[in-house]
Specification:
The protein is of the alpha/beta class and about 450 residues long. The protein contains 15 helices and 17 strands. The strands form four sheets. Strands 4-12-11-10-7-5-6 form a seven-stranded mixed sheet, with helices on both faces. A four-stranded mixed sheet has the order 1-2-3-15. It is globular, with a radius of gyration of 22 Å.
């Protein structure tokens, strides 16, 4: 190992909290789909900063916006207005109306029947913060609905509409509220007790819904495609039943699309192509929105937003001029029709190539490729194999991620080409050959 990375690793060990399990590689710079370490080694990046770098590394347009806006206005706090928050919020709402989501059918610029005029956005700094905010909003909506039904005051201690429902293998974040709805003992156990009133169900288990969601439920939070949990998709019929149950009980349905949203599936939202009776009240987002600059957001229908007034939620850094300018630039580009068409074409090609591998390595791989769009997973029969594949692939110049206990996750930048897909799958195939002979 050359002196430079050795010095970096030594400094990290001395001064950085040791909460990350990382290989002894120090990254130097990137361009497009590729990233280089300080030894000059090139890697094809199929991790994209954990599904963040939608436009790849060192994108010239992103760099230009960053440089221009940084010379104008970095930060104001939310005690003053600036132009970019409203522009990005408008783009998020109008694109959702155009592409479909939170109750709008694709191509509709009019609110769903019985709803008010539109939707509202709250900007945060991260996905965890977006989920925390969504849970807070749902709690407030729950109190408002309980007050209306009971005739009592919102601060009455007898209010029992506060329970939250989440699902096994979910990942919603690491702060205390988000952690409480991330039912994984590895993450939760060291920090118990967590917030009370959380119920955990099984994804796609129809028979559980009546027990899970009831009059005491204020919120249900679910990922349409679980990312960290192993690239597991929720069934459409189950989401429709969940939507129906939330409507019957007055619970707020939250879709966490932090990893699967914003065109990663080839549509604005993972739920954009679903029937509107499988849509949520709130959708949370973050990862790709500013291509690596920290930003998160909560998008909610007006009938949910109307309970939130001045002082009920806030943030110092969320929705800064720079973050929102970058978000506006990135979202404008990834929503262009040719770009979206390329995502669809690339994802179909990647899925096609990956789908051959279980037939060639049946003793290693599970039979089905998981996910859709450019959030795909290979399931393994042995839990030790995902980490082994990522290690072998890194040695051969390909960066992959594990997911859950039995999967490797493929979440490349949305600019991926067929040639880069071929390069990646060829490496994966060679690694599987090695694993097969060991």
């Amino acid at each position: 190992m050359s002196p430079l990375p050795e010095a970096v690793l030594d400094r990290t060990e001395r001064y950085i909290l040791p909460v990350y399990a990382r290989p002894p590689v120090v990254m130097s710079h990137g361009k497009g789909m590729y990233i280089w370490d300080t030894d000059g080694r090139e890697y094809l990046d199929f991790s994209a900063g954990i599904a963040v770098n939608a436009l790849g590394h060192a994108d010239e347009g992103v760099a230009q916006v960053l440089a221009t806006e940084a010379q104008k206005l970095l930060h104001t706090g939310n005690v003053f207005h600036h132009q970019w928050a409203g522009k990005l919020a408008e783009l998020l709402v109008t694109l959702t109306q155009r592409e479909g989501g939170v109750g709008w059918e694709a191509g509709s610029m009019h609110p769903p029947s019985g709803q008010t005029n539109g939707a509202k956005v709250f900007f945060s700094n991260s996905g965890t913060e977006a989920n925390e905010g969504a849970l807070k909003i749902a709690r407030k909506v729950g109190k408002a609905r309980w007050t209306k039904a009971s005739g009592k005051q919102a601060d009455d201690l007898s209010c029992d509409k506060y329970e939250i429902v989440c699902f096994e293998n979910a990942f919603h974040g690491r702060s205390m509220g988000a952690l409480s709805v991330t039912p994984n003992a590895k993450y939760q156990k060291p920090f118990t007790p967590l917030i009370p009133g959380v119920k955990v169900g099984k994804l796609n288990a129809m028979e559980d819904l009546d027990k899970l969601v009831n009059e005491q439920t204020c919120a249900v939070i679910v990922e349409p495609i679980q990312g960290e949990g192993g690239i597991r998709a929720a069934d459409i019929a189950w989401l429709k039943a969940l939507r129906k149950k939330c409507d019957e009980t007055g619970a707020v349905l939250i879709y966490d699309e932090i990893q699967c949203g914003l065109f990663r599936t080839g549509a604005m939202w993972a739920h954009s192509t679903l029937p509107i009776d499988a849509h949520p009240d709130i959708v949370t987002m973050a990862k790709p929105l500013a291509n690596g600059y920290p930003i998160g957001a909560i998008l909610m229908r007006d009938d949910i937003a109307e309970t939130m007034t001045a002082g009920t939620h806030g943030t110092t850094f969320g929705g800064s001029p720079l973050a929102c300018a970058l978000g506006y630039h990135v979202l404008s580009r990834v929503s262009e029709r040719p770009f979206v068409a390329n995502v669809a074409e690339s994802s179909a090609y990647l899925h096609g190539r990956l789908s051959l591998l279980p037939n060639w390595f049946p003793e290693i791989l599970q039979p089905e490729v998981r996910g859709r769009g450019l959030i795909l997973g290979l399931g393994f029969k042995k839990q030790s194999h995902p980490a082994k594949l990522t290690e072998l692939a890194r040695e051969r110049g390909l960066l992959l991620l594990t997911a859950g206990t039995d999967a490797v996750r493929l979440v490349p930048s949305l600019i991926i080409s067929q040639a880069e897909i071929d390069q990646a799958v060829d490496v994966i195939e060679s690694c599987l050959h090695v694993m097969q002979t060991q």
